[in-house]
Amino acid sequence: MIQMSSLLKDALHLFYPHQCISCGDDVLPFDKMICNYCFENLPRTQFSSLSENSIDRIFYGRLNLKAAHSEFYFSKGQLIQSLIHQLKYNGNKEVGVYLGQLMGQSLLMNNRFKEIDFIVPVPMFRQKEIKRGYNQADIIAQGVADAMQIPVAKDLIQRIQFTSTQTKKDRTERWDNVKNTFMIKNEQLFKNKSVLLIDDVITTGATLESCGETILQIPGAILSIATLAYAIV
Known about the structure:
Blueprint: H1 2-15, H2 36-40, H3 54-58, E1 65-74, H4 79-89, H5 93-108, E2 118-121, H6 126-132, H7 136-148, E3 157-159, H8 171-178, E4 182-184, H9 187-190, E5 194-202, H10 206-216, E6 222-231
Parallel strand pairs: 1-6, 2-5, 5-6
Antiparallel strand pairs: 3-4
């Protein structure tokens, strides 16, 4: 039976080769998405274990956070940019779940992210989400939730204004673009709860700050932030 299973896997691999989504190497088991070489070269930040890391410092004096984290460094033309691009623009949701699981595993290893009640992905404007077909923050949050065994509350915050892309805006323009953008849909559920807010990439933190401010208006709410990647400006 074991030999037959092995032969079946070999046959499937022959006709449907499973390649590394980063470098294209065709030597992967079907339960892996990237090869060992690419995995070992993921630009991990190790921020989850640092209580005063670069993400915490972004929000000093701006948000009252329990903890903040980004799993990877983001650099143009590098592996993480390629993987996030596949998630956001090529419809590859599997890579988003996979990277979210890696981040969730990192968060589990540190006491700063214990006792989280809800994982909340930063919402996308409804019409924009319909056009894309999904919100990439939802996909990442799903992976984090799989690893941490914490429920996702994706419909409890609403993005009530359309905002143009933040990519080419400076710090002030980014903040002006997202202020007063979010609204709580179910305040009662957040009272005295600890929330982990999830997004894909953090640059200046303007979007996360606006969303986080909305959450912290709720009595007793405790806020933590985690993003897949950190783009240094």
